[in-house]
Design a protein that fits this description.
With 337 residues, the chain is an alpha/beta fold. It is built from 12 helices and 14 strands. The strands form 3 sheets. Strands 1, 2, 3, 4, 5, 6, 7, 12, 13 and 14 form a 10-stranded mixed beta sheet that branches. A two-stranded antiparallel ribbon has the order 8-9. The chain has a two-stranded antiparallel sheet with strand order 10-11. Strand 1, helix 1 and strand 2 form a beta-alpha-beta unit. Helix 6 packs parallel to helix 7 and helix 7 runs parallel beside helix 9. The longest helix has 24 residues. It is globular, with a radius of gyration of 19 Å.
């Protein structure tokens, strides 16, 4: 019998996305499947829409907007399945998107999490920013993807059609064994949103698990459904959460050195924003650093188990993606790794 799979879509005022993309999800060709919408106290007509048009879909209603991380944590305590799939509400899926990923994960007990190829819904020949063909991380905690480095997104020409270990799987379409999810305690609610899936995958890897990209399946992500790239709040979350996950998951000495270096990178970004007149973005970095240092001891208590050096993990790039991209003019993943 096929392993049981629960596709869980977290929704917050996303009726338009549910109307547009949920029809593709319900056409999924996988037998042992349940589809669930977890609602973060939406104030639009999402719940009424689901009740009217999709009465068979289970709806879990949270009492407030808990963000991506805690919203999923609360919902998944109420769901039983062998596999959880965290799927963004703005993702279109083909009918056969689940089976290849589950087959790959079933083939190896050490694989705890995975993602399919993630392509752009508005141009399906291109990879999408949030995940592309699997996530990587450089020596100083900067993240990038196979198929996307910073804002440079590649066209899919089957150049990344191999199934391979990666450092992190995108939260836009994240497959995870429920046993592994429970073992590491799910997502870190303090991160609220952005990079919480990277932290989750990092904790899984510190426990000896693998994270993979299954290129035999693909989905199509619209992107920017909740916070677009022009949001200072998103910028704040990214700078703050990047520092937090480094503190949480690196060995102590390595964390001290690399966070110190990252602060200088952040200072360079601050000046870049300020010189361009993007003061809201510059000040969001100040806010991120203030929160990071204010929560320093709280974050320190989350350092659990054996924390392995970053370069021992599959999907960790030993150099600096910043130098390769900005100084070396290397724009494609194939030029760097």
């Amino acid at each position: 019998m096929e392993p049981s799979v629960a596709v869980v879509i977290l929704n917050w005022n996303g009726q338009t996305f549910l109307e547009r993309f949920l029809p593709s999800v319900v056409k999924t060709a996988y037998n042992n499947l349940q589809i669930i919408v977890a609602d973060n106290a939406s104030t639009d007509h999402s719940i009424a829409f689901l009740a009217q048009h999709y009465p068979a879909i289970k709806v879990i209603v949270n009492d407030k907007n808990y963000g991506f991380a805690e919203g999923y944590n609360k919902a998944l305590t109420k769901i039983e399945a062998d596999y959880f799939v965290l799927l963004n509400s703005d993702v279109e899926v083909p009918s056969n998107w689940i089976e290849p990923v589950i087959a790959l994960m079933q083939s190896d007990v050490t694989i705890a999490a995975a993602q399919p190829k993630i392509k752009w819904q508005q141009n399906k020949s291109m990879f999408e920013y949030a995940g592309a063909a699997g996530g990587f991380i450089d020596n100083y905690g900067f993240t990038f993807c196979r198929g996307r480095i910073f804002d440079e997104v590649e066209t899919d020409q089957q150049q990344y059609n191999s199934n391979m270990p990666v450092f992190w799987a995108s939260g836009a379409a994240l497959f995870i064994k429920s046993k592994a999810w429970k073992e590491v305690g799910g997502l870190d609610a303090d991160l609220f949103a952005h990079m919480e899936e990277i932290d989750l995958c990092w904790r899984l890897k510190n426990k000896g698990y693998q994270v993979v990209c299954c290129a035999d399946a693909e989905v199509y992500h619209l992107g920017g459904g909740t916070l677009n790239a022009g949001s200072p709040f998103k910028n704040y979350l990214n700078f703050r959460n990047n520092l937090i996950i480094m503190q949480k998951n690196l060995p102590f000495g390595e964390a001290c050195i690399k966070i110190f270096i990252r602060l200088w990178f952040d200072l360079a970004a601050w000046f870049q924003f300020a010189l361009k007149g993007n003061f809201a973005f510059a000040f969001s970095i100040n806010k991120a650093h203030a929160h990071f240092f204010g929560a320093f001891f709280k974050t320190a208590k989350k350092r659990k188990g054996v924390l392995k050096p970053l370069n021992t993990h599959q999907g960790a790039f030993k150099g600096s993606i910043v130098f390769k991209y900005f100084l070396g003019a290397k724009k494609w993943f194939s030029e760097i790794v």
